[in-house]
Amino acid sequence: MKELVTVIVPILEPQINPTEEKLLHHALQILADYPIIFVAGEGADLSVVREHAEHIDVVHFPKRFFESRQHLGQLLLMADFYDRFNWCDFLLIHELNSWVVKDELHYWCKQGYDYLKAGPALAAPHSAPGVLKRITGLTEEEKRLFGAGYADNGLYLCRIERMTATLKGKRSVAHQYRHNANLPNADSVFWELEANRFLPHLRKPTDIVRSHFVQFGVQYQNAALPFALTGISRDNIHEIPYFKTLPETE
Known about the structure:
Blueprint: E1 3-10, H1 18-30, E2 36-41, H2 47-52, E3 57-61, H3 69-75, H4 79-83, E4 88-94, E5 99-100, H5 105-109, E6 115-117, H6 131-136, H7 140-148, E7 155-159, H8 160-169, H9 171-178, H10 186-194, H11 207-213, E8 214-216, E9 228-230, H12 241-244
């Protein structure tokens, strides 16, 4: 019988910074009831990770995919990546710019969606292309601006079977996105604009539903807390009101 969900934590080079270490420590605590697997480049130094969890499961991929977030995006557009974890139904990709607020992971896996992720930052140009634009397609410049809105947006829940089927069905388009060096966060742009273009491949929630799943930390406004916050970095964590309410030990 398959596992329901596995948490995947990518570790990019070089070494993680203190804010990322704080987010890592919290993830290991709040998601302790689920399998957690780190993905890293071959030969990566994971000593900081082992300071928080001595016994960790690691899956290695070619080192080039962990040189930057841009390179990681290429890996996340490969069916082989998701196939490596096909012993479970869902993956929660948890990059070290996100914070799970409350453990509702089982609940979200049971809601019938194939892909849940925050939309682009509200301040991003072309943050919400209209229906016509989604069909006709964005220009390269519009895609670039749209992709910029996904900076540090690193948490999503996906159904493995549907992700691999989509990538295999759109092999040529995915290949173009993987090799577009001028497109930031190409993986997010692909899943948002291309996956359901012409034909629906993934079941996605409405904007209101996904705001209950994850929100940008800097945009969160003291309403009902979502499952998670994202868009967190060492440059803004001290400005996010949510973190000012946490005990010093967090």
